[in-house]
Amino acid sequence: ATVLVRGPPGPPGGVVVRDIGDTTVQLSWSRGFDNHSPIAKYTLQARTPPAGKWKQVRTNPANIEGNAETAQVLGLTPWMDYEFRVLASNILGTGEPSGPSSKIRTKEAAPSVAPSGLSGGGGAPGELIVNWT
After folding, report:
1. 40 close to 66: Cβ distance less than 8 angstroms
2. How many domains, the chain?
3. Residue 98 belongs to domain spanning
């Protein structure tokens, strides 16, 4: 007799970060073992090393189907360090996450809002002190 054990998928492998922008990156990964139940979807997570907590990120496509091996991460903060990981899910649950990607830094960008609480004055002749929040 043959016993077939089904379970949540194994961890995806080889998470690679490409096309790094100021608020987006492109992630790719390799499929993990499906444990005899087709992978239904992937979830992407990011953290800010070294001590940040893993959080789910917005992606394009918004729902990453089980046959995908790449997706774009959206809504990142410019000039910030990130690591990424991938989790696979099937009808039996979500498997262990992939190992973290290499650390990357998003590109710099112009500020999205002007400084507030602007004040200044004082200082020596030929010198201007400016403060903002």
Report:
1. yes
2. 1
3. 13-131
List pLDDT tens digits, range 31-48.
999 999 999 999 999 999
Q: Tokens for 12?
A: 């995806």
The domain that holds 91 is classified in CATH as 2.60.40.10
In a domain, 47, yes or no: yes
Query: Whole-angstrom Cα distance, residue 89 to residue 10?
Result: 9
- What is the spatial distance between Cα 64 and Cα 71, in angstroms, rounded to a whole number? 7
Residue 11's contacts (CB-CB under 8 Å, 6 or more residues apart) are: 32, 87, 88, 95, 96, 97, 98, 99
pLDDT at 128 over 90: no
